[in-house]
Amino acid sequence: MIMRRSLNLRTITMMILMAVLVWSITLETCIARRGRHWRHSHHQSSSDLSDSLSNKKPKSHGNNHHNSHNNNNHHHKSKPKPKPTPKVKTPPKADHDNNPPVVSRPPKVQPPPLPPVKGSQVFNVMDFGAKGDGKCDDTKAFEAAWASACKIEASMMIVPPEYIFLVGPISFSGPNCQANIVFQLDGTIIAPTDSKSWGKGLMWWIEFTKLIGIKVQGKGVIDGRGSGWWQQDYPFNDEENKFLVPLNNSVQQHPPMPIRSELDERMPSIKPTALRFYGSFGAEVTGITIQNSPQCHLKFDNCVGVVVHDMVVSSPGDSPNTDGIHLQNTKDVLIHGTTLACGDDCISIQTGCSNVYIHNVNCGPGHGISIGSLGKDSTKACVSNITVRDVTMHNTMNGVRIKTWQGGVGSVKGILFSNIQLNEVQCPIVIDQFYCDHSKCKNQTSAVAVEGVTYERIKGTYTVKPVHFACSDNFPCVDVQLSSIELKPVPEKYHMSDAFCWQTFGELNTPTLPPIDCLQIGKPARNRVQSDHDVC
Ligand SMILES: *[C@@H]1O[C@H](CO)[C@@H](O)[C@H](O)[C@H]1NC(C)=O
Ligand SMILES: *[C@@H]1O[C@H](CO)[C@@H](O)[C@H](O)[C@H]1NC(C)=O
Ligand SMILES: *[C@@H]1O[C@H](CO)[C@@H](O)[C@H](O)[C@H]1NC(C)=O
């Protein structure tokens, strides 16, 4: 009885699936892949059904996916197949820990594209049912591969080259994962562009949380396909353009409102960061490209020990709020050898950051490298020991900037900007303690204090204003050091201004071009002292 009923059910289901199969081959392969995934969750009959429907040979049902790359059901029309990865048997971990490997490897047939580290295990998303055709949702396969990689120290999760993986919002999370996992990204990961995938809005798309030693490396691409989100952000934030006075009234302040097709879905108003690391010790990102994020591209929050190098961020200069790299509550950070092109700050350093060293970075288009904005809604902000050196900026809104809101407390201390080459930057050097991204912000008595900011060898061309130091009346900026400043005007379509200073104290260690006479030499006669409660 039960048998017959289930047979009938199977027949009906089979007929439905047959129809689907005839209707669309693409859909059929998606179902087949999903069927394969179900098998891992022990839904035996469903997967058998889809297997028999698509005439697949029975596959190994074992749980060890280790390099069991199966090419049977990859119907590639346009993309070339990647070279099959040779099987690499890794010795048991105990052996590796105690003795050097005794058994010599067989003579190399052909080296794998990226030989796994000895003693590590690799988990290829293709072995977990990923399709990599840019259409089927591969989220489940990525989750399954991560679940396996998570259990083994120094394991490697592989996202192979040549494929495009459509992956929805996903979290690769500890805290119960082993340390030092490598996420080898050589393929392309794309974000869903339909509003349904994002629910009411999510803060991030791909996140790694609560891990010890996590490395994302490879030649791959993370593409947020954010244009649908950007269009909703019109008009743009005027605070960022407040120095611009067009020469000719007919000059357009904003790029024209993009034309939206009637068919476009409305995306949620909360826009996701493309790649986010949270609460981790030792996070490294290298080699990859992150592009067209709906919002920020790469974010570190509550991390200690971050290294980012030889990677690229790329999105259009007019894409709103698309920061390149965003640091928050994060300490001991090294960023170098990166090229950042985006529609907001190339690097943004927020509250709770210290010991940050940034060098050999190219920025532009974008809004420059910024500390802040800090102290919004009377909050306490603490930022210290930040070095930014050997940076080039091309066509950016600002060069190096510190921005704080009125009413905050805490401090920004120990900042060095050195050897910054600027090319047609609107305003190269900015301290703004009157930051306000809406129409009215009242002047208040408290402020995030700014002290100990050194600018040396800041050279190149500007198009609006060379220096803008606007500090608060109650907490003047102190110990602002300037040397070897050489900034030449290049008139464009805006009124040019001279250097501006308000309540800014420090030293001119060399003559500057243009002269920055407005800097008050020495210390303020009377400097308000923050209460213990407000000190960092
Ligand atoms: C202002 O721009 C308009 C249109 O681009 C142009 O015809 C006009 O000559 C410009 N005026 C000045 C003073 O540059
Ligand atoms: C400042 O940060 C650098 C790394 O950028 C670090 O090497 C140095 O020890 C820090 N200095 C202090 C006083 O913490
Ligand atoms: C706040 O104070 C600054 C400096 O004293 C002044 O230039 C500015 O106009 C004030 N803004 C408001 C809204 O009162």
From TrEMBL:
GO biological process, one term: carbohydrate metabolic process
SMART domains registered for this protein in UniProt: PbH1
One Gene Ontology molecular-function label: polygalacturonase activity
Upper classification of the organism: Eukaryota, Viridiplantae, Streptophyta, Embryophyta, Tracheophyta
PANTHER family attached to this UniProt entry: PTHR31375
Main localisation: secreted
Family matches, as Pfam families: Glyco_hydro_28
Annotated spans, Disordered: 40-120
Biased composition range(s): Low complexity: 44-55
InterPro entries hit by this protein: Glyco_hydro_28, PbH1, Pectin_lyas_fold, Pectin_lyase_fold/virulence
Ranges annotated as biased composition (Basic residues): 56-86
Protein source organism: Arabis alpina
Keyword entries, A-Z: Cell wall, Cell wall biogenesis/degradation, Glycosidase, Hydrolase, Secreted, Signal
Cellular compartments annotated: Secreted, Cell wall
Catalytic residues (positions): H367
Name the record gives this protein: Polygalacturonase
Residues making up the signal peptide according to the UniProt record: 1-24
Similarity annotation: Belongs to the glycosyl hydrolase 28 family.
Tagged with keyword Secreted: yes
